Amino acid sequence: MVETNNLNESAREEKKTTISLSPTISSMATRGDESTADPSAAEVIFDVEKLDAFYGDFKALSNVSLQVYKSQVTAFIGPSGCGKSTFLRCFNRMNDLIEGARVEGTIKYRGADLYDEEVDPVEVRRRIGMVFQKPNPFPKSIFENVAYGPRLSGLKKSKLAETVEKSLRRSALWDEVKDRLSASAYGLSGGQQQRLCIARAIAVQPDVVLMDEPCSALDPIATARIEELITELKSEYTIVIVTHNMQQAARMSDQTAFFSVALDSHGSRTGELVEFDKTETIFTNPNDSRTEAYITGRVG
Amino acid sequence: MRLASSPADIAIQTAKTRQSLQRRPQADLPGTLFKWLLISFTGFAIAFLGVLVVVMVNDGWSVLSGRLSGFLSNGFSQRSAQDAGVWQGIVGSVQIGIATALFAIPVGIATAIYLVEYATGGWFARAVELNVRNLAGVPSIVYGLLGLTVFVKTLDGFTQGKTVIAGGLTLAAMVLPIIVITSVEALKAVPQGIREAAYGVGATKWEVLSRQILPAAVSTILTGTVLSLARALGEAAPLILVGAATGFISFGDSNFLETFTGPFTALPVLIFNFARQPGEDWSANAAAASVVILILVLMINGAALYFRNRFEKKW
Amino acid sequence: MNMTTISAEELQTASGRRLRSSLARWMFLLASAVTILISGLIIWTIASEAWTFASQVAADQLQTIGWFPRRGMFDIGTLILNSAQIAIVSMIVAVPSGLGAAIYLSEYAHPRVRRIMKPTLELLASVPSVVLGVFAISFITPVVLSKFFDEINFFNKLAAGIGVGLLVIPLIASISEDALRAVPRDLREASAGLGARKATTAIRVVIPAALSGLMAAIIVGFSRAIGETMVVTIASGGGDTSLFETSIKESGGTVTSAMAALGLGTDQVAGNDLAFQSLYFLGALLFIITLVMNMLGNLIVRRMQERY
Ligand SMILES: Nc1ncnc2c1ncn2[C@@H]1O[C@H](COP(=O)(O)OP(=O)(O)OP(=O)(O)O)[C@@H](O)[C@H]1O
Ligand SMILES: [Mg+2]
Fold it and tell me: Does the domain at residues B87-245+256-311 carry the CATH identifier 1.10.3720.10?
């Protein structure tokens, strides 16, 4: 546990410095992949290479390579069923929980192969947190929801209240719930529940936060609050977000990956990465005609 | 604070990350213990079933190996354990099973159909549903009281008193709620789309039911029904109250149909009787008869499993 | 199609088809009324005779020590004590095993293992209770219990309780498993996403979320244990009388086994006039106790279903 905390702390400090001192040249980011956006921008957190993802015999995702950079928001967009969620869930090995799910190819997290035999997926998930499409608070009190993760990593009781408060403040929920921390989380509105889930995810001080369409179940006002929150959080966390909302990707993200469904060589449907670049480039000057069609079709 | 810029630094950082993510052998010791605790609890239940079978076969071995045909074909004899057999019990159980099925299955399935297809959500349906749930929890011996008073005494014009019919009605009342509950679940599992498609082409409710919904639900209904009959087969308590004979029954020269209105017994009642008698020979009989009933139960469960797999539909 | 007008008649379903449909409707309605009729008959049957007993029995007949119905000694307390003791023993056997199996099946077992385990538990559920009674007197007492206790009655409440417990395991397992599986997958994923291991997720999230359902399983299991007759009749309380005895190593009849014993002699009820009616009084008692418990259990299950 001691080790873990050290790593987290040092990672955090590094992040702050990286922002002020640029450009950092990471040799990993300079791999000559065409789709790589601005290799000199920042340190690479995830380096995905030739990833295939399967559910049993079904290949959901084929040959994906991209990089996720530190302290940036990376957005995944694309039509439904193209494998965005599947891909996202590879980053913290969430797909391990699904019977028959497996991957081929590599995902490196800070240089270490995530799917190495030696790697404990539980340790991975402590560092790489996740926020889901539908708010999914535990049927416990607001306090207990946020305290759940820190308790798992053995945080002292005396520090718990402080951590909970910090996380709730960080997710802009504190003022709304500070008087009813022991009330059930189910009494909160959908938007509040989702911010609670974000608070719960950041309470363990993860390195990366993965978000799978975190606003799709929310009304526009709640969505705006979450977007604002995500923009704020990016100074501290690396964020990967799946979204259906093109404007949202354009507004919030630094890098955008566009996925699509294609027929593979055997004629079956599989997801593939069409284009990965700086968000600005994707939305103003996409390389691939399919990207352009998708963007213009939706944004108008 | 240094930045991860040179290859050497990167290598160090990578090593650090890798180490921190490493699986530690002790990390999930409590979890492993928990899992094995659960497995042992589950194993306990399964092992018990195995031990039960072994003990019964072992205790009944002298009978099963020595005089199996006589044991299966003889009537119950109070005089000598060596002559006692289970024939009358088997006949009685089969007859009661037939009577139970005849009374309970049509009413049970019809009730379920009414609840799901006709009265969904109304106060009457809710009252019936609540009532059925409560009936399902009523101890079997209480059904025996119902049988004794209503089926044996009040309705003796129909049942002729303590007969297979009275026993069958009693057990039918007992399994009825189970049949209703499983059939309701089966009908509810039929996708709404099937109903709408059929109504869409102008079918009446009855036509939709008999041609679409029932065929779609039949496997689950059969499975539940068959399992509930297995339960009826094993019941002794209500039959004792209804007056299943505990002594020798003479069928005389009555034919099979006439025996429905004569004195009766059933396999579990016989086992109870064997178990009550003192002495090794009688306990061997009890064990051997237990083996017989276990085989019957196994066959019924096998049939249920067959129905489930044979007709299983994937929606 | 070149038809431009249709008459109202053409829009009506052929009368034969309609008749059949409404006939069916009435049949189904009639059938579901049968279940109500059964409830009514049970209550009427029990209540009338039980009332005869309650109104005619003298208070001192109820306060004797021991249950000797044919001598007019109706100490129901003795039977209730035995019922409670046996039910509690049975819960000690059935709750860990039933819950454990349920948690294993819902959280751990591979689908293939589940496919084998479920029918096995169903098989276990259909083992006749007389067979368990025989098992209790031919194995549980002489082979197992006699190893632990020097002096134990051949007929004893402990063995009966264990036998009943074994019988109740599948019931508790199946209700609990339903409760555990009703917990949304979302919650398990949320917990895993925070770096919880499987056991942690099960213990801190899934079980608390399903707690009310698990409670319901235990309540319904307890109710079944109270109502179980033949195991007790064979293994603990065969006779129609019962001494007051607090030790579970001794024999003793329960509410149910006393009923079975009275039922065996319904032709030749001799002695006290009220012996026959006491059968119904016990039935009423049993009916009320189990009804209350089952309603409670069902209520809890329904609440839980509404929540998710
Ligand atoms: N658990 C699973 N088992 C089998 N196939 C799955 C599973 N989950 C997803 N799939 C399949 O994998 C493909 C990609 O699914 P995925 O959920 O990753 O798409 P998505 O891009 O996130 O879509 P959406 O925008 O609708 O969320 C789909 O064809 C889907 O049917
Ligand atoms: Mg998705």
Answer: yes
